[in-house]
Design goal:
With 454 residues, this protein is mostly helical. The protein has a single domain, classed as MFS general substrate transporter like domains (Growth Hormone, Chain: A, Up-down Bundle). 77% of the residues lie in helices and 0% in strands. The chain has helices at 2-34, 40-47, 56-85, 87-106, 111-123, 127-138, 141-168, 183-186, 190-210, 228-244, 249-273, 286-315, 317-334, 343-375, 380-409, 420-436, 442-453. The radius of gyration is 22 Å and the shape is globular.
Length: 454
């Protein structure tokens, strides 16, 4: 008992000391995802040769999808690898990848190079799943929801700064004479990417100095490393096994549906806001869109840092899932009904609904899934890797679906016009909410687990 107490205390101390570092790592992860959102449509237009015509909506979807496709393929690998060698080295490798490939994306001079840079950034960016597993390692059940909320707040902060940096620092030579006749004029989106690289490099230095390992050697998986193809096959098998598990599959499916609906919006939101008001849009610029996403991020920070703890204590993580899905769905459906004459008031209102719904959903789903995994004896890295892998799969389908639906409907008549993609977002959130209502209470899951073992 004494040995267990000492070990538990050491782990708790390490967890408290590492929270700031994990906060920073998660924030950098989301900066990398969100930084391209305000300028991606304009980058596709700039990199399209004059004598060629490309479908802007589909290319926007493809560039967003390349990042998520890589995460889908490699998140289970990083999660499983962290179970074997520890969380710390995996987190640091991800930061190295961020530093290199942010810069590569900013220097891209063709659509193909931009696509490759985003894909490689996704390959090395398994930080979110591993950070969640780290929190699970060092947190008691009573601390879990609050600590997941802090990581969720970092998630929201990164999603705030990412689009804001991307919007405000895009094409600096056109706004500040200091950048004229420099590389930032020939590569108008290099500056925000360079800032993101520097932030990632700083995070790497802090992690190297201050991030302790959370997974004791005696608790690590002892299997020998497999070849990459075998390892990938095993990771896919692990993800499939999690979907077959009665105790965790519903939670993962709910998260996947929520993410699918949410990321459809990522592809079509700016396609809508940049559209001419004559056609129903808002004529927003890169900076305008960056500020809108920043407001979404600020609302998410408030929700996850302030509201999630009291809400979880009052209602429990499981009960919050259907409510959060429905709230986000209402906001998503209302986006294209914004009127140009009241654009800022209305778009901020619907963005607030989306942000609060997402801010409640993310830590609630992660903390509930972690509790279920630990109570049933699953390896936490495998479970979180499976969740993140399926989430990345949804982020693959979401932008592609959004870009395709937008292309097919934008010029048509209501109801199958530019509103259609946002209606589809709401439909996915409705499915997620209904499925979440079927998740049994934790006490029933524990009871079923005990019965199965007997």
């Amino acid at each position: 008992m004494t040995g267990d107490s000492v070990q538990s205390t050491a782990v708790q101390d390490a967890g408290k000391g590492a929270l700031v570092v994990l906060f920073l790592v998660t924030m950098i992860d989301m900066i990398g995802f969100g930084i391209v959102i305000p300028f991606l449509t304009y980058l596709v237009e700039d990199l399209t040769p004059e004598n060629q015509v490309v479908n802007i909506g589909l290319w926007v979807g493809l560039l967003m999808t390349s990042y998520s496709a890589a995460q889908f393929l490699f998140s289970p690998l990083w999660g499983s690898l962290s179970d074997r060698i520890g969380r710390r080295p995996v987190l640091m490798v991800g930061l190295v990848g961020n530093t290199v490939f942010f810069t590569m994306f900013g220097l891209a001079n063709t659509l193909l190079i931009a696509f490759v840079a985003r894909f490689l950034a996704g390959v090395f960016n398994g930080n979110l799943a591993v950070a969640r597993a780290y929190i699970g390692d060092v947190s008691s059940p009573q601390e879990l929801a609050t600590r997941m909320g802090l990581i969720g707040a970092a998630f929201g902060l990164g999603f705030t700064f990412g689009p804001f940096i991307g919007g405000e620092l895009s094409d600096p030579a056109a706004r500040w004479s200091f950048f004229q006749d420099t590389i930032f004029e020939t590569h108008p989106y290099l500056l925000p990417c360079a800032v993101a690289s520097l932030l990632s490099l700083f995070s790497l230095a802090v992690a190297y100095r201050s991030l302790p390992e959370s997974l004791p050697v005696e608790q690590r998986t002892k299997s020998e490393p497999l070849p990459w193809t075998s390892n990938m096959a095993q990771m896919m098998k692990n993800s499939a096994s999690m979907l077959k598990s009665q105790n965790v599959s519903l939670i993962i499916w709910v998260s996947m549906l929520f993410t699918f609906g949410f990321t459809i919006m990522h592809a079509v939101f700016i396609l809508y806001t940049e559209m001419d008001p004559v056609n129903g849009g808002l004529a927003f610029s890169e900076a305008d869109n960056g500020r809108i996403f920043a407001m979404i991020g600020i609302s998410g920070i408030f929700t996850q840092a302030i509201l999630i703890g009291p809400l979880t204590r009052r209602f429990g993580s499981r009960r919050l899932l259907p409510f959060a899905s429905a709230l986000a769905g209402v906001g998503l459906v209302l986006v294209p009904y914004t009127q140009a004459e009241n654009a800022w008031f209305q778009i901020l209102l619907v963005s607030f609904l989306i942000a609060v719904g997402n801010g409640i959903f993310q830590p609630s789903s992660s903390s509930f899934l972690t509790r279920v995994a630990k109570d049933n004896g699953y390896e936490l890295g495998v479970v979180m890797g499976a969740q993140e892998s399926l989430g990345a799969f949804a982020r693959i389908l979401g932008p592609l679906t959004g870009g395709l639906v937008w292309t097919l409907t934008v010029s048509r008549a209501w109801p199958f016009d530019y509103h259609t993609a946002f209606h589809l977002c709401g439909l996915m959130m409705l499915f997620a909410s209904l499925l979440a209502l079927r998740i049994p209470p934790l006490e029933e899951i524990e009871s079923d687990s005990t019965f199965a073992e007997e």
